[in-house]
Design goal:
557 residues, alpha/beta, 2 domains, 6-stranded mixed beta sheet, two-stranded parallel sheet, transmembrane, endoplasmic reticulum
Length: 557
């Protein structure tokens, strides 16, 4: 029975992986969009924290050069600042190699031109599903000895909406989850066989630990307590005769990985070809830059400051729901649980706290609880767990900013699109435009007041022509301005019916129903029922082609 349930949950995970929800801009701007192609060097600070993007200039290669594909992308401040804080070491094996394989298969099958970026997008989603299904579930099997407890843990992790959604998206946090789990596996293997030679496990642990550090600087927080188990192995000669060799193997593999990581980052961020002297005199050490950046409160304030209890009282219940009750009533003490506790404790020290930062703790905690033994409480808890994950899975895995990716694909197919204004949505990933960037200027005006948006549209709107008033003939025009906005934006309602000679005209050309803008919720101003009626009842994302009357223009009336 449990095997059939597990297989069903794997299919559910795949279904959510193939759903175009958009959980956070970082799933593109810290991963695929960086490594996919040559970049647009844009001097901007925090691009998806409420500030508007500047009007994008025509694309040109930056110091990063051309990567895998030829379509332009946007490199954010984390990669273009004088002290970059993101390493490219994790990006190449996780995203770069699959992209190279896709390009090789595309060309090998006799296809001409560039592989469509949306095909790359879905391929990476399937890849994240596969590595989550294989590596995460495998790690749980390795970490739990009891078959009965193992079945419970596997089903709990597989039925979590976090596994369905976050783990199947291209987040560095999702990669960190797998690295933490497998470091724990390696630590367990080394500690449980102290009298045997574990040189291979020690070498792999050193390499994987450095990989995790360059992926996210928060990674060591999850190994603070588990790492203590290695002290007897490395320092007690009676337990381990090969202690010096094992320690040397761990340190050597770690230092070798550090050298490779620093070399890759220095080459990536240096305009010219690097030499040995560059690596010695001016190395780019991204984890150090990241740590120094996050130690400054004024830097974190640009992203949002949170109280120390944000992770424990807000983010964790949002991720595990009813499982949090079991952590207090039916815990199963384990190295996994201690790893999660140490991670939460260290992450709570930093004042910027997002729920996705806790992703590595989810499988660790869900595999460290026991279900109630009494039948009725067990059934009640299981029902609550199913309802919780169905609600949040549908919300985050289907509707959350679900129209952004399809909307960008739609815009890429409009031959007349030369200006695209995105209002009250997450920042659209421009690498999905499939080369349309060469003629299309994308502007993200997420939190801009409506009056200013109208002024911007008035400046950019093309003149209304007879073609604009006939079905699809506007596509033959050379220029066109599009506004992409949630249908729950009531501020725009008075302007939409305008058919007169004055003002802007909005022609709806595309709509995606499965889109919710949770940032548009304002219970304080509109009340609960009115807000839900607007945000949920009018869910969807709409693209309007915007024109204006131009006296003297051909076809004006």
């Amino acid at each position: 029975m449990w095997r059939r349930t597990y297989l069903l949950l794997v299919l559910v995970r795949l279904w959510f992986a193939l759903s175009p929800s958009y959980l956070h801009p970082d799933e593109n701007f810290q991963g695929p969009e960086v490594i996919a192609a040559h970049g647009l060097h844009i001097d901007m600070q925090k691009p998806y924290l409420g500030d508007s993007f500047p009007q994008l200039p025509p694309p040109f290669p930056t110091k990063h050069g051309s990567q895998i594909f030829s379509y332009p992308v946007r490199h954010t401040w984390e990669f273009t600042s004088d002290h970059p804080i993101r390493s490219v070491l994790p990006l190449w094996p996780v995203y770069g190699l699959p992209m190279l394989l896709l390009r090789w298969l595309w060309i090998g099958n006799g296809n001409d031109g560039e592989i469509p970026p949306i095909a790359v997008f879905w391929s990476l989603r399937v890849l994240m599903f596969i590595i989550s299904f294989v590596l995460e579930d495998w790690a749980i099997h390795e970490l739990i000895q009891s078959p009965r407890q193992r079945r419970t843990a596997v089903l709990l992790v597989a039925s979590s909406y976090v596994t369905w959604t976050y783990q199947t998206h291209t987040f560095s946090n999702s990669v960190e989850t797998l690295i933490v789990a497998w470091c724990l596996v390696l630590i367990e293997r080394i500690a449980e066989s102290p009298h045997k030679s574990s040189l291979l496990a020690c070498s792999i642990l050193g390499m994987v630990a450095v990989f995790g550090l360059f992926n996210r600087i928060t990674f060591p927080a999850f190994l603070l307590i588990p790492g203590l188990r290695l002290i007897p192995y490395f320092w007690n000669r009676q337990l381990c005769d090969s202690r010096p060799i094992a320690l040397a193997a761990t340190v050597t593999s770690a230092l070798l990985t550090v050298s490779i990581a620093i070399s890759l980052d220095t080459a990536f961020y240096t305009p010219q070809s690097i030499s040995w002297s560059d690596l010695i005199s001016n190395p780019v050490i991204t984890p150090l830059n990241n740590l120094l950046y996050n130690m400054q409160t004024e830097n974190l304030a640009q992203h949002g400051l949170h109280p120390w209890y944000q992770h424990s009282l807000v983010n964790l219940p949002q991720l595990v729901g009813p499982a949090l009750l079991l952590l207090f009533t039916h815990p199963q003490p384990s190295l996994r649980l201690y790893s999660a506790i140490s991670g939460i404790f260290v992450l709570s020290i930093f004042q910027h706290q997002e729920a996705r930062f806790l992703l590595p703790t989810i499988p660790l905690m869900l595999s460290s609880v026991k279900l109630p033994k009494q039948l009725t409480p067990q059934r009640v808890w299981i029902a609550a767990w199913i309802i919780f994950n169905l609600i949040f899975g549908t919300l985050m895995g289907v509707y959350h900013q679900g129209g952004v990716v399809p909307g960008q694909v739609f815009i890429s197919g409009q031959p007349d699109a030369t200006n695209a204004i995105w209002w009250r949505t997450y920042t659209p990933p421009i690498w999905l435009l499939n080369g349309k960037n060469e003629v299309l200027r994308t502007q993200d005006v997420m939190s801009m007041p409506g009056e200013e948006v109208m002024e911007k549209l008035t400046d950019l709107a093309t003149c209304d022509t007879p073609a604009d008033r006939r079905n699809n003939e506007y596509l033959k025009e050379k220029n066109g301005t599009y506004l992409v906005v949630p249908s729950s934006t009531t501020w725009l309602d008075p302007y939409l019916p305008n058919k007169g000679l004055d003002g802007l005209r909005f022609r709806e050309v595309w709509r995606h129903r499965k889109h919710l803008n949770l940032d548009d919720i304002d219970f304080g101003q509109d009340g609960v029922w009115k807000t839900l009626s607007r945000v949920v009842g009018r869910r969807g994302l709409v693209a309007y082609r915007v024109t204006k009357s131009c006296p003297g223009a051909k076809g004006w009336y």
